[in-house]
Amino acid sequence: MKTDTNISGAHGAPVVALEKASMSFGPVHALVSADLVVRRGECIGLVGHNGAGKSTLVNVVNGRLTPTGGAVSYSELAAKASARNNAHAHASGVRSVFQELSLCPNLTVLENLRIPYRSMPRNGWRKTAKKMVMAALDQVFPNHGISANAVVGDLTIAERQMVEIAIAFSARDARANLVILDEPTSSLDAAIAQQLLEHIRTFCTNGGAVVFISHMLGEIFDVATRIVVMKDGQITEDRPTDGFTREGLVDAMGHVASHEEAGPNAHAKRNLGDVVVQLPNGLNARKGEIVGLAGLAGHGQAEALANYYLSETSAWRSTKTPKAAFVAGDRARDGVMPLWSILRNMSLLTLPEFSKRGLVDRGSEQKLADDWKAKIKIKANSLTDPLLSLSGGNQQKVLFAKALASSAPVVVMDDPMRGVDVGTKKEVYKMIRSEAQNGRTFLWYSTETDEVLECDRVFVFRDGEISAELVGEDITEENMLRASFEMQEAAE
Amino acid sequence: MSQTTTNTSSHAMSLRDLVQKPWIWAYLAAAAAFGATMIISGGQGAGSLFYAALTFAAFSAIVGVGQMFVITLGPGNVDLSIPASMTLAATLALKFMDSNPSLIVPGLLVAIGVGIGCGLFNFALILLLRIPPIIATLSSSFLFQSLAIWSNRGIRVKPPEPLADFTTGGVFFLPNVALVAIFIAIVAWVVLERAIVGRWVLSIGQNLRAAQLSGVPVNLVRFGVYVTSAVLAGITGFLLANFSGGANLNMGTEYMLMSIAVVVIGGSSIAGGNSNVPGIWGAALFMFLIVSMLNSYGLGAGVRLILTGLIIVTVVAFASKKGYAA
After folding, report:
1. Nearest Cα to A283, choosing from A450, A482, A444, A53?
2. Which H or E element spans position A285?
3. Are A237 and A277 in the same domain?
4. How many CB atoms lie within 10 A of CB B144?
5. What is the per-residue DSSP string for B134-195?
6. CB-based contact B217 A318, cutoff 8 Å
7. Do B216 and A348 touch (CB under 8 A)?
8. For residue B130, what are the domain limits?
9. pLDDT at residue A1 above 60?
10. How many domains is chain B built from?
11. How far apart are the CA of B274 and the nearest CA of chain A, in angstroms?
């Protein structure tokens, strides 16, 4: 904890202050007249649905964007919306961890620390960097098991996230005074997320400040001292955590809180059909069943799904009746065509189904996209806009629509809800239920417990193998955690 | 959210759309080169220059279309065996026809067959031996070239009379080879813009893994693209040999860089996933006209090459900038 004890400045001293900050991108007002002061020792939970302006607010705070109106000031340095916000933010020890991971995959863990630490002494920098990155990792995630010399590309997505978080908290030439965490736990499992929350608490107690963005409300209530709610580019609520209830918070975000509880009790008895999926590791699914793949992140669930999908499809033939459709969780790697419009991204999988002599039927393509835009409520001005112009959650909706629009009897989902807001999740859950009712089978890998609770049957993975199969009433958080950890203890 | 966007007239929109097309710059550059040549000649020989440009651009355009599909497949994909495939196809086809007019159609089929063989061989190297496409096509081009040398043995077979007449002749203002090349370009445009296969090629160029996870038969598409490129090279070799009175061993040499240059100048992304067909014709015309312009100004070979290089860089800079803005 040596790095934390010498943070200067009293508790309550402002690290950064926004005064009527506004940000417009052409006609889009992403941030409207936001007032926000982040003080030492506090952890701000920032919530809002997709496209509410959270990312913009964060980018104004960390100096990456210069607001088009209003002022931002860092510590004592007052800076009128100037182009040097970036430098001020850097000097004030403002660090950010983004939802889309931003490490260099071809470099090692220690080399990735070297990149943000520009003024690191040249002599023997590898040794210094190694020491620093290991200290940071040990401090935030004790027993992490990550080597400083590991190439980032070889790490699991959870490990990459851990490295990025640790680097953000590490003391470099400037100390970390304010760390912005945008969905940091989305790819971490419960135990590791807990370590992070623990560290945030310590960090704030020692005078640091944290802005914590998460769609997991439990975590927000767990760690935040103050909650800021955003809606349509405005800060609508800014109160201490005590002043909120979960229901109240969901209401404040503007989504109608769904009262029809969709927990394990919602497992209405359905007539399931024959077994349609049978994997070599024992995983099976029947027609119309929603099968969950659970367990700690990175224990072979994603590989099992990808292998299943690739074995069901051919790299040499195309078919009008695909056997399976895939919904990617790692969008940039597995799902998105970055140069294409929403329309083209959405129709790629279904093109052969409505083709005429090998040509794209553009009328059907447009109709399909219009239908799904309305059905799944994609927030976009035009379907011909680039997919990347959408917020992360809306991009994910497009990928959902792509898979659900196909006639495939099995839908494979590889942790598809990373960074999707609560309201959207509820809508998607409902859609999955009704599709299952119509006889579609879902294989659903998720790192979030409440999603796994939506499933009819759950296979818990551990070290690439199935450690438990849970059915109906047995699908509980405790049972899943037990199945994830039990064998780990036995093995050690 | 879109209340602030105002409606512009449809006419203004179409003009703006046109300027945003990446291929427009190749045509503007070609027109400028044509105009500059006309200034020095005082407007004389416009018709014959245009005719010659269409003729020679036709050969570049056909190989350019094949190369475009390959480059669209994404980083690292390029077909360096085009010159060798051209030479091999032309050599074998002319030897087979042996100046006999009754063997013209089978001769064309021989050229196409050689193209298919070359494409199969290239893709076998890429897929089965996992050799990077640049290396695979480069090494196979040595093989094809050696085969051509071995079968040719320095004999220059004259093309059949009617075929020579066809390739050097024309209808009205248009050379026959240009008509063939325009037809091929139109087919390629339909494939790229309207067909499912075109979507597949573009998707693979953007994100191979995501394409595969979206049900795109990636190996089939890549296979088809490499075979198409080699077949188009074979057809070009066939036409060029008949046009120039027989196959010779270095007839393809300049088409290695030419095929890549017309793709890039035409506004297709060298990184893959974003290509267009019209630009290839514009660029092919430009590449011919720029040389004839510099010739008509009486510049030496060295200066000519330097200027050609500089002008290409300028056009590519414009084309790629506009391409990303769109």
Report:
1. A444
2. strand A284-286
3. no
4. 28
5. HHHHHHHHHHHHHHHHHHHTT--PPPPHHHHHHHH-EETTEEHHHHHHHHHHHHHHHHHHHB
6. yes
7. yes
8. 24-30+45-325
9. no
10. 1
11. 8
Mean pLDDT of chain B: 88
Domain that holds residue A193: 2-253
Domain shared by A235 and A269, yes or no: no
Q: Rounded CA gap, A273 and B5, in Å?
A: 52
Strand partners of residue A410: A324, A441
Provide, as residue numbers in chain B, all residues whose Cβ is less than 8 Å from the Cβ of A338: 206-207
Tokens describing residue B270: 């060298």
- All residues of chain B having their beta carbon less than 8 Å from the beta carbon of residue A334 are 209-210, 213
Q: Which of A211, A233, A253 is the last residue of a domain?
A: A253
Would the pLDDT of A211 be above 70? yes
CATH of the domain at A357: 3.40.50.300
Using the predicted structure, report yes or no on whether residue A93 has a pLDDT greater than 80.
Answer: yes
Q: What is the band of A298 on the pLDDT scale with cuts at 50, 70, 90?
A: low
Span A139-144, mean pLDDT? 90
Three-state SS for A324? strand
Q: Which of A325, A334, A360 sits opposite B195 (nearest CB)?
A: A360
> Is the Cβ–Cβ distance between A311 and A279 less than 8 Å?
no
pLDDT in tens, A158-210: 889 999 999 999 887 778 889 999 888 877 888 898 899 999 999 999 989 99
A325 touches chain B (CB under 8 A): yes
B206 contact residues in A (CB cutoff 8 A):
337-340
Q: A279 and A240 in one domain? A: no
CB atoms within 10 A of CB A85: 26
Whether residue B210 and residue A360 make contact (CB cut-off 8 A), yes or no, is no
Cβ–Cβ contact A145 with B under 8 A: no
> CB-based contact (8 Å) between A459 and chain B?
no
Domain count, chain A: 2
Q: For residues A411 and A404, is the Cβ–Cβ distance under 8 A?
A: yes
Q: In whole angstroms, what is the distance from residue B324 CA to residue B326 CA?
A: 5
CB-based contact A214:A184 (threshold 8 Å): yes
- Nearest-CB residue to B213 (from A334, A359, A406): A334
The answer on A200 and A342 residing in a single domain is no
Q: What is the predicted pLDDT for the residue at B238? A: 96
